[in-house]
Amino acid sequence: MHVLGCPVLGVVGTGTRQGKFSLQLALRHEFMRLGYNVGQLGTEPTAPLFGMDAVYPMGHENAVYVKGFDAVFAVNQLLSQIEEKNPDIILFGSQSHTVTFVAGGPAYYPVRQQELLMGCQADAYVLAVCTDNPISYIKRNVNYLESIYHSKVIALAVSPLSNKDRWSTISNRLALINEEEQNRFCKELNKEIGIPALPFRNHDHIIDITNLCIDYFS
């Protein structure tokens, strides 16, 4: 296992279809705009088309054929290769959710996500959440992420997307919530969890999240 010498920031989530990939791209763009050399591992097959350095395609109809420690080792080696480019920070993003919400079958068990997290060994996380997530479930995600390694969830990024039946296998009802509801949920999270909760809806929000990351690693 390679021990990385630069900060590693993970963008993970509490569910599907939250805008995590868009958030990763926006953070990458903002870091680069500020002059940082950014390395990035993507888990979408299209990641190289967006300039990411390596891809571990573990999403829908994935093309990852290793599992267990072999998967952990493979992810670790990809980050090792990215570090050869001497980045100031390495970003990576996960798929779907992070911890099990319901025991409804294999699709609900984030096994590949755990292999990814163990291979990346992030120093910090930005956790994407939705207004339809129970706060108790968000707390479980935070506790889990901070217990794998000596890591810190430094921001909760509240998605503008909502799906009241997020855990249904037949529902695709995705809605755009209004900004007032998004801000209200941010305030509730700040009070209940004590981690900065910020909306991600426009460029100003991305700047705020980026600055939190910079302050943490400075």
What does this structure look like?
With 218 residues, this protein is an alpha/beta fold. Helices cover 38% and strands 17% of the residues. The strands form two sheets. The chain has a seven-stranded parallel beta sheet, sandwiched between helices. Strands 7-8 form a two-stranded antiparallel sheet. Helix 4 (135-148) links the parallel strand 5 and strand 6. Helix 1 (20-33) packs across helix 6 (203-217). The longest helix has 15 residues, at 69-83. The chain is globular and about 45 Å long. The mean pLDDT is 92.
Short description:
By secondary structure, the protein is an alpha/beta fold. The chain has six helices and nine strands, in the order βαββαβαβαβββαβα. Strand 5, helix 4 and strand 6 form a beta-alpha-beta unit.
The total of helices stands at 6
Report the principal-axis shape: globular
The value of Rg in angstroms is 16 Å
Helical coverage, percent range? 25-40%
Q: Main beta sheet: strand number and arrangement?
A: 7 strands, parallel
Low-confidence segments, given as residue ranges, are none
Topology:
Blueprint: E1 8-13, H1 20-33, E2 38-42, E3 54-55, H2 69-83, E4 89-93, H3 111-120, E5 124-129, H4 135-148, E6 152-158, E7 161-162, E8 175-176, H5 179-193, E9 197-199, H6 203-217
Parallel strand pairs: 1-4, 1-5, 2-3, 2-4, 5-6, 6-9
Antiparallel strand pairs: 7-8
Keywords:
218 residues, alpha/beta
